[in-house]
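Filed under: proteins

Residues; backbone shape codes:
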Amino acid sequence: LPARNGGKVQLSGMSYDNTVSLSGIQWRHVKFIEDFTPDRSTGRWLMMSDVCKHCVRAACLEACPTGAIIRTEFDTVVIQQDVCNGCRACVSACPFGVIEINPETNTAMKCTLCYDRLQAGLVPACAQACPTQSIQFGPLSELRQRAQQRLEQLHAQGVTQARLYGHDESILGGLNSFYLLLDEPEKYGLPSNPQLPSTRVPAAAALSTATAVVLGLLGLVGLRKQRMDQLAAAAKQGNDGE
């Protein structure tokens, strides 16, 4: 990815987490999560290589008004830079906080899962470079099988909190980039039940309708009171005239 500040290293002051978060420039971020007791006498590190999940039911794709976000022949989700107008609809729609605006181009950017490399028959750069094979690439059926085997190993070793996240259809129809976590999703800053924008529309519409009804009733009450005040004033004037 393009280096900022001429490639000069700038420490964030947040432990070893120097990139802090995903952005329009940093498309992969390794989270260093400190899970310590208040006195820091005991604890552990949780690490997660965060990236776009390339959701089967992608909120960003649903929200994009220009058609800039597409699903590719590899079932990945890509933002076409020549079509994106930087409206930020996808930024607010993504439940994982993956997409941001690139300050250089003023367009939305995120991981493409190395679309150009996939077209050339190559493995994504992150999986190619990972020295521990923590990041793996391949057919989803094979990856799910490997992940399940590893999960069973962890459970046998007493890591009972370990779980898979996004491997099945329960989360946005499935995540094409799914995770093996050592604790609950919230520990990693992941939502336990991410939602599509369209699922929030009925509730919002119902709230808007209810608000309109209440305002309408208040308006009628106000008009009725105004009319009664006018009649009372007219009656008083009539009595004064007598």
About this structure: Residues 201-209 have pLDDT under 50 and may be disordered. The CA atoms of residues 150 and 156 lie 10 Å apart.
